[in-house]
Amino acid sequence: MRTVDAYAATSATEPLIKTTIERRDVGAKDVRIDIAYAGICHSDIHTVKEEWGQVTYPLVVGHEIVGVVAEVGSEVTKHAVGDRVGVGCMVNSCRKCENCLAGEENYCLEGNVGTYGAVDRDGTITQGGYSTEVVVDEDFVLRVPESIPYEAAAPLLCAGITTYSPLHHWNVGEGTKVAVVGMGGLGHMAVKIAVAMGAEVTVLSQTLAKQDDSLRYGAKAHFATKDEATFETLARTFDVIINTVSAKLPIDAYLGLLRRNGSLVNVGAPAEPLSLNVFNLLGGRRSFSGSMIGGIRETQEMLDFCAEHGIAPEIELIEAARVNEAYERVLSSDVRYRFVIDAATI
């Protein structure tokens, strides 16, 4: 076991504190990574506040991780010391169910092992990326292309794949009209990726405050959802709507924006249930769906796609000691568009 520095939550109400945690010894198939950067995802905040369920404290969160391979096990073939790599939202799965065998470990029928807050293969609770090191099975370690700016790469491991996966699955491309609901950490990545896929993109945000950003990232239009006229103007317009908002929204209103055969896909994960009128599905053979990250194969595909198209998240790099301030700013939507912790400051 190795003792490493980290920032951990000790309860649902107290600030995160600097502490130490134990990392397992490197096994035959393991990779030990010196963490360089860790993104702050809204999921981290939901988790530490127990908004998605009970938590075992102390807990180190963070599932947007990039770093350098420092040590490999005797049977590792996919990565070598010195490689620039990443770790996303999961670190293991059953490897044998139909979903895992299809390369979609994110939908493992036995439940994938989350990067933090899950029961690891040794029976301990997984601890995430707000730390200086992590040990991960080589099959769940990604190659990070050199052309992606190092400090900006981490959010791709959650925000990037969470938006790429549904856009890819619903065949977004030339001639597709896409709306992105919410212009935050997930939303701005959805815009950049959908534009690179060839879609015509519209941003639906509460106000026009981020309109300039939307247009700069390639969107054709930006509408304020606080303006009721928006839902009349855009009725029956879109083939795909990606909802990135982790809050309760009037789903029926957004379903009305879909064309025949259109799909509204939820990637945001609100703590409270959503409701809808089924007749808003029947009338246009519309679909309301959900999507959660992606498998390892698709995540690597996303990283390579972003490298090819020059896509990177917009970030604000912070010292680890500012993590609690960053949480408050995320909750007040005061970040454009992802905080990233410099792990050298932990």
UniProtKB/TrEMBL annotation:
Listed EC numbers: 1.1.1.2
Keywords: Metal-binding, Oxidoreductase, Zinc
Matching PROSITE patterns: ADH_ZINC
Record-annotated Enoyl reductase (ER) domain positions: 8-341
One family name in Pfam for this protein: ADH_N
InterPro entries: ADH-like_C, ADH-like_N, ADH_Zn_CS, CAD-like, ER, GroES-like_sf, NAD(P)-bd_dom_sf
SMART domains: PKS_ER
Metal-binding listed as a keyword: yes
NAD among keywords: no
Entry similarity comment: Belongs to the zinc-containing alcohol dehydrogenase family.
Listed name of the protein: alcohol dehydrogenase (NADP(+))
